[in-house]
Amino acid sequence: MNAYNHGLEARARGAMDLERWREVAESAVREGGEEIRRHFTIVGDATEKRGDDLVTPADLAAETRILQNLRRAEPSFGSISEEFGASGADREYVWVVDPLDGTNNFAIGSPYVGLGVTLSHQGIPIVAAVHEPFSGRVWTAMQGFGARCDGRTIQVNTVPVPARAVIAYVQGYPVSSDETLRIYVALLGKVKRVLSNWAPLLDWCLLAEGRIDAVISLDSEPEDQFGGALIAREAGAHLFDFQGKVAGPTAARLVAAGSTALRDHLLALLREVG
Q1: What is the spatial distance between Cα 255 and Cα 243, in angstroms, rounded to a whole number?
Q2: What is the pLDDT of residue 46?
Q3: pLDDT-derived band at 5, boundaries 50, 70, 90
Q4: Could you please report the per-residue DSSP string of 121-167?
Q5: Which of 68, 105, 171, 239 has the fewest C-beta atoms lying within 10 Å of its C-beta?
Q6: pTM above 0.70?
Q7: Backbone angles phi, psi at 105, to 5 degrees
């Protein structure tokens, strides 16, 4: 077998592995979603775990069920999950799990929540599945093979007018209120609308589908970003750090957009903030 054919065969084997892991991830988030829906009508069961971050029995039930599915399918893989922490995090393949993205939304009765499972290989996200349990939608991506929503191929919006763009602003808990205010002021009047939904996984998926035009993300938790950013990138989003350098889903701070003109517009505004 010549080198070219060997390369094709290796890629085919790799694609088969990725597809299997995508199916595992999708099945896991769907089962986790059943727990989220089951707990939705329970009121007053949220507790604080740090600052104003919350945890509910729904988080714990969904995470337990997701991890059981993942470990049954691939017992040799490690895992990092939001509530139960790390197990085998130094292994070559590691599942990254967010059992309830948008817990604060959930606690006040808002259904804008998601679940995410991402598979990383040596720290790089290669497969992702995000589920919105109340609509039933699932977004998935495999590195190098594009992104899908409920099985159909999706793509970012590549032609928004920067001043008419709708963007999502995402921040982790370490970001100061002063920095947040400066960014909002810089964006005010320079784009159509800035969303702050507190469910980053879904924001990334809205970008991937072309429903919104960009995401600005500051210090988001890995469980909230890795899978969503991979889905957006596989749907055609350009990912850059705040200095304008090409970045991947694991970067601490990201500007992501389908349009290079919008990306440049947002980076210029962020440079003004410093």
Answers
A1: 10
A2: 59
A3: very low
A4: ETTEEEEEEEEETTTTEEEEEETTS-EEETTEE--------GGG-EE
A5: 68
A6: yes
A7: -60, -50
Per-residue model confidence (pLDDT) at position 13: 54
Do residues 106 and 100 touch, judged by C-beta distance below 8 A? yes
CA–CA distance, 226 with 169 (Å, rounded to integer): 16
Which residues are within 8 A (CB) of 2 and not within 5 positions of it... i.e. 6 or more apart?
none
Residue count (the chain):
274
CA nearest to 170, candidates 147, 202, 132: 202
* Position 4 pLDDT exceeds 60: no
CA dihedral 23, 24, 27, 28 (to 10 degrees): -150
Domains of the chain (ranges; CATH) run: 3-145 (3.30.540.10), 162-273 (3.40.190.80)
- List % helix, strand, coil for the chain (3-state, nearest 5): 40, 25, 35
Residue-wise pLDDT tens digits, 91-114: 999 999 999 999 999 988 999 999
- The pair phi, psi for residue 191, each rounded to 5°, is -135, 170
Whole-angstrom Cα distance, residue 118 to residue 23? Answer: 12
**pLDDT per residue over 168-210, tens digit each?**
999 998 899 999 999 999 998 999 999 999 999 999 999 999 9
What is the phi-psi region of residue 146: left when phi exceeds 0, alpha when psi lies from -120 to 50, beta otherwise? left
